[in-house]
What we know:
Layout: E1 4-14, E2 23-27, E3 32-36, H1 44-59, E4 67-72, H2 83-91, E5 94-100, E6 106-107, H3 117-130, E7 142-145, E8 148-151, H4 167-170, H5 190-200, H6 203-211, H7 215-218, H8 227-243, H9 245-257
Parallel strand pairs: 1-4
Antiparallel strand pairs: 1-2, 2-3, 3-5, 4-5, 6-7, 7-8
Amino acid sequence: MEIRREELTRxxxxxxxxxxxxxxxxxxxxxxxxxxxxGAGHGKKALISEFIGGMVAKxxxxxxxxxxxxxxxxxxxxxxxxxxxxxxLRKSEGLNLGIHFLDGAATFDPAVNDxxxxxxxxxxxxxxxxxxxxRTRLNxxxxxxxxxxxxxxHGASLYFHHSWRDPAEAARDPFPFIxxxxxxxxxxxxxxxxxxxxxxxxxxxxxxxxxxxPDEWLEEEGSEISAAERREGYRRFLxxxxxxxxxxxxEAVRQRAAx
Length: 259
């Protein structure tokens, strides 16, 4: 597992579709990225959720845009006329997260686009594993690009870290929010998907992903929890959640039966 680091070179425009106000920008490699900004919304925690979610999805062989670490300096976007956006960019100086821009992609519509039951079950499993509350029918965060289904936007995952309660206890959350998942109605193979997903990843892989989180995102001024303790907390959450996946799978099956 690797992640590249690039310098942001050209600001293009703010993307106002989501609540976090990401930016569309170009980096030194010549590619365009949706930039999740350090100074927006939940800040570092949203970047960590996006990072872990995207890397875990990639480890499971889902199609998801490449993640890139992006450095934003003091003059980036200085010509942006919107004062709100300008303030956000200045708060985001430092290390941000870029998501490769899927040019020409169309938003997935569960009423129009077909997904087979096993693929739907695997995606539901992934989002229950990550406690991702934001893949609903109103906001599926899935795209069709080159006639293939791509998963985007994992920033609403891992909500336990907003209160930072015991990670091992949080890992055993049955996740009732899965009832709102866009693909739950057709996820008819959840138990089979559970077996396949547990075979497809190891605690060692999850640990490697956690080790890749930039140190500066784990540091929180005024907090009694150190960066090392936070890193270990994410590791404990993910490995314990994998070991107890039967808890959230049973809840997903129950929620599906109630539809």
